[in-house]
Specification:
Rossmann fold; 21 helices; 34 strands; EF_Hand_1_Ca_BS; Toll-like receptor 2; innate immunity; disulfide bond
């Protein structure tokens, strides 16, 4: 029994090991497939597999992946096991595939998923089972599929944390009660329902609060019902592609106050004169509505509105009207809206942009009594029409006026017109082709902000009002700025031709300055620190010369990173060439590049000191003497070793000190030259050729003498001339290793007293016998006999 049990145990272990191996091998193969299908998934939390032609979700997805992008592929089906291991997934992007079917359990393991995008696929229905376990889902995109409704069972009932929902498609036709059950709060709801034909009233009432709802709606029959359901929930309603026709039903029928809706936007809508009159009346019933907006809309009409009906329906509560790019095919026939004056009193903000407005009649402008903001940019206003638009007593409360990108030509006339606006604070007249600027202009007394950018003014004059706090004169090719603006806090000089920062003294309160894309090469510490209140400086986009002074300031100024806008990425060196294209903060020039004159001066001083030291050392160690001796020796080496016998003129060349001349000339010369036979001696005083270089005289005398007689004494070794004679001669004599030298020691000399440069002389005195002058007369006779014998040998 025991052996059978052991055998069974071994078999069980074997199967366990085999099973583990199979699992590991399967995991390895899946990881390899994942790497091949989507290389970016390797060792990263972001897995970007978009636009790779995949027709399946690659296997091997693990829990470390938080973002999976499979958009723009060819995936048709999502299986239940495809995403089973991706338990930490936060973002799943599957838009623009060919997905037509999803297993009910495909998303069950994605409890942490926050964004799911299934838009632009081929889903013919939506299953509540897909979303049942997505408890953390905040953003769900389902637009662009082929489902016609949201099904019988509420598909989103478990999505308690949902913030944005995008749904619908060109075939989406039905919204039923209960479709949005479970959803209470949404930041954004987008319903693409251009062909919506059936809407059950109350369907959208289930959502208690929607900050922004976008609905594409062509069928006006359901418009009123949808608005009524949204009165108490939506804050901003945006209706797209609607073609509004006459609507008699009330938009607030059976609805109780208070309403929530604050803003209504029509985008890509189509209106007629009749419906404009009716919608204005109906919208007055929505007492909470404060902002009305029309974007890219078409108005088929001439402004022939039912002004009596509009006026009799009461006062409008709308305070902000924005009309952007409205198309009026017959705008040249458009009426002046006379009769609507009573509806303009409460309006505070008016924007009419890109709509070919060329004037506002004076009698209409005078009734905008509460208007504080007007934006007329990108229209057709000219100076003559502006004069009528801003007539006397018009726009009495206006504080901000935007007339940019119109057809204004005269700055003088423009300032004359706006000077009639006593409360005006902010004025934008940029992108008008003024071309000239007068010396004196009339401005509103309270003007604080002025935008004159891109107006082709060649310079700045005292026309600029001194009351300004913000001035923008960008893109005008200005070469200097010197205006006295004591209250100015912000100055924008972008895209001009300035080479230096403007002076700080005329603008002492400046807080923000932009000189981006000028011709600024650098700025100094003094310029920077002169702006005492500066908090922001944008000098990016200039071609900086990275000089030593500029770099030193940049590297040592502590506030650079806090003050410079775009630092360090937008600040690049243009020169020197070696650092072109390098960020200013990364450049560090060498000491030689930064202090060239100082370095050159130091090098010169060092060279002078080295030369001075060399001279001193040379003097101390007789370097000049050694050089001269070497030169003489080299010359002597070129001459023959021995002069021919016929050229020998003397028995001996006598080398002695001038201090020993009395003994040499009166005793030795007399004794030797008067001997029998007499000796011929060569003395430098008597026998040197006048005018000949002493070195040549010495060498020639030695070569023409049979012997060389050195009279050594303390005076000899201390005498400069003796040193020269001895050393010029000993190069040749001692180099030939002969016995032509005779040493006569006139007085005792210690060998240590002989200079070290006379190394061969010292060697001879230590190795050869020399004659020593004796004090006694008898011994002197022996001395002379020995000397004569040496000369004869």
């Amino acid at each position: 029994m025991s052996s059978q049990t052991k055998q069974k145990s071994r078999t069980t272990r074997t199967w366990q090991v085999w099973a583990i191996y199979v699992v590991l091998a399967g995991n390895l193969s899946e990881e390899q497939v994942l790497k091949q299908a989507c290389p970016s998934c390797d060792a990263t939390q972001l897995c970007n597999c978009s636009s790779m032609g995949l027709d399946f979700i690659p296997p091997g997805l693990t829990g470390k992946i938080t973002t999976l992008n499979l958009a723009y592929n060819k995936i048709k089906h999502i299986r239940s096991q495809d995403l089973q291991q991706a338990v930490n997934l936060r973002t799943l992007l599957l838009q623009s595939n060919k997905i037509s079917s999803i297993d009910e359990e495909s998303f069950h393991s994605l409890g942490k998923l926050e964004l799911l995008n299934l838009s632009n696929n081929s889903l013919a229905h939506l299953s509540p089972a897909w979303f049942g376990h997505l408890f953390s889902l905040q953003h769900l995109h389902l637009r662009g599929n082929s489902y016609r409704d949201l099904g019988e069972i509420p598909p989103f009932s478990s999505l308690r944390n949902l913030s944005s929902l995008h749904l619908g498609n060109p075939w989406f036709s039905t919204i039923k009660q209960g479709n949005f059950e479970g959803i209470e709060l949404l930041d954004e709801l987008w319903v693409d329902s251009g062909n919506l034909s059936q809407y059950e009233p109350g369907s959208l009432k289930l959502i208690k609060k929607i900050n922004h709802m976008i609905i594409n709606l062509r069928n006006t029959n359901v418009f009123a019902a949808i608005v009524r359901d949204l009165l108490h929930s939506v804050t901003w309603l945006e209706v797209r592609e609607i073609k509004l026709e006459i609507e008699e039903k009330s938009l607030v029928q059976n609805s109780t106050l208070p309403f929530r809706i604050r803003k209504l936007t029509f985008k890509d809508a189509w209106f007629t004169d009749k419906y404009i009159s009716r919608i204005l009346v109906l919208l007055k019933q929505i007492t909470s509505l404060q902002e009305l907006e029309a974007i890219d809309c078409v108005l088929e009409g001439k402004g022939a509105w039912n002004t009596e009906e509009i006026a009799s329906s009461g006062q409008s509560f709308v305070e902000t009207v924005s009309i952007i790019n409205i198309i009026i095919p017959h705008f040249h026939l458009f009426f002046d809206l006379e009769g609507l004056e009573s509806q303009l009193k409460n309006l505070k903000r008016l924007t009419i942009v890109s709509s070919r407005v060329f004037m506002v009649p004076c009698n209409i402008a005078k009734h905008f009594s509460s208007l504080v903001y007007v934006d007329f940019h990108d229209n057709l206003l000219v100076n003559n029409r502006l004069d009528e638009t801003v007539c006397e007593d018009a726009w009495p409360s206006l504080q901000t006026l935007n007339l940019s990108q119109n057809s204004l030509k005269s700055l003088k006339q423009t300032t004359n017109s706006v000077s009639r606006l006593p409360t005006l604070i902010n004025l934008d007249i940029s992108q008008n082709k003024f071309g000239e600027i007068p010396d004196v202009c009339d401005w509103p007394k309270n003007l604080r902000y002025l935008n004159l950018s891109s107006t082709q003014i060649p310079k700045l004059t005292s026309c600029i009002p001194p009351t300004l706090e913000v001035l923008d004169v960008s893109a005008n090719n200005l070469k200097e700025f010197g205006l006295q603006l004591p209250f100015l806090k912000e100055l924008y000089l972008t895209k001009n031709q300035l080479k230096t920062l403007p002076g700080a003294a005329p603008i002492p309160n400046l807080v923000a300055l932009s000189v981006r894309r000028n011709k600024l090469n650098s700025f100094s510490r003094e310029e920077f620190e002169s702006f005492r209140k500066m908090e922001l400086l944008d000098a990016s986009g200039n071609n900086f010369i990275c000089s030593c002074e500029f770099l030193s300031f940049i590297h040592h100024e502590a506030r650079i990173a806090q003050v410079l806008v775009g630092w360090p990425d937008q600040y690049v060196c243009d020169s020197p060439l070696a650092v072109r294209g390098v960020q200013v903060g990364d450049v560090h020039l060498s000491l030689m590049e930064c202090h060239r004159s100082l370095v050159v001066s130091l090098i010169c001083v060092l060279v002078f000191l080295v030369i001075l030291i060399l001279v001193a050392v040379g003097y101390k160690f007789h370097a000049v003497w050694y050089l001269r001796m070497t030169w003489a020796w080299l010359q002597a080496k070129r001459k023959p070793k021995r002069a021919p016998p016929k050229d020998i003129c003397y028995d001996a060349f006598v080398s002695y000190s001038e201090n020993d001349s009395d003994w040499v000339e009166n005793i030795m010369v007399r004794e030797l030259e008067q001997a029998c036979p007499p000796f011929r001696l060569c003395l430098h005083k008597r026998d040197f050729v006048p005018g000949k270089w002493i070195v040549d005289n010495i060498i020639d005398s030695i070569e023409k003498s049979h012997k060389t007689l050195f009279v050594l004494s303390e005076h000899f070794v201390q005498s400069e001339w003796c040193k020269y004679e001895l050393d010029f001669s000993h190069f040749r004599l001692f180099d030939e290793n002969n016995d032509a030298a005779i040493l006569v020691l006139l007085e005792p000399i210690q060998s240590e007293a002989i200079p070290k440069r006379f190394c061969k002389l010292r060697k001879i005195m230590n190795t050869k016998t020399y004659l020593e002058w004796p004090p006694g007369e008898e011994q002197q006779n022996i001395f002379w006999e020995n000397l004569k014998g040496a000369l004869k040998s």
